[in-house]
Amino acid sequence: MPDQEPQGQGGASELASFGEELRREREIRGISLKEIADATKISKRFLEAIERNDHRTLPAPAFTRGFVRAYAHYVGLSSEEMVNRYNYAVASDDRIEKPPHIEKYPQTPVRDISPKPPAKRGIPPVYARVNRNIIWSVLIMLALGGVAYWAVQYRGQSTDAEPSDPTTVPVATKAIVPPPLPPPENPNDDSKLRLAVEVVENSWVVLEADGKTVVNAEMLTGERRTFEAAEAFRFRTIGNAAGIRLTLNGAAVPPLGEVGEVVKNRVFDREALQKIRADAPVQTRS
Asked: Between the CA atoms of 101, 102, 105 and 108, what dihedral angle is there, to the nearest 10 degrees?
């Protein structure tokens, strides 16, 4: 007789794959547990327990779901999807308190199939009893008559106005004035910071403009985007430093690192702009 599978084994494997996936996505983005703990105010011990699937260290599932939601949001994953996967994994493990109302297959609502009496039909209004084909025929005839009348009137006016010698009729011309072009952007206008990002190789980028996150995704080769800020830009993470080229207010930014190098907390403000312009090579005329 074959050995029976231990109770709760399916739930444990679900939790194991769940924690391993979170750890893998975090490492791909070059994010440390300490960085998540500092940003979400969640104990690093609990974050490690989530990745190890150590449910004995974690608090009740009601609190752990909040940890999973904050973790997934910080690394750029769908918070609700990861919480639902955690709920399903917890529901499959008998050793953990199950969240309420977790059903893998929702019940189909009962339909009322009892016969219904036919709806009563009242007497249709007068216009409903008229044949619609007749109405359409009348409308088409009126439209054709209007077009014919207009054609006759226009032809008569054209005949009366036709000059005896068309070569003497002056032709009025109207000059076409092109719309004014927008003024060119002044590269020396530093009232706001403009950062142009050109992707030469795929790279994971987390970028903030004046403290607000504007990019938290993988940027693909050939992508070009421009951002504006009043005070400063901050790259929280660049997964491949050699994969992007930057231009700040028209000044080319030197390379940030090597291929595959992870760069963190790189700030570009007006002070950095002045330094970039000062270090730029001076162009001379021959």
From this structure: 10
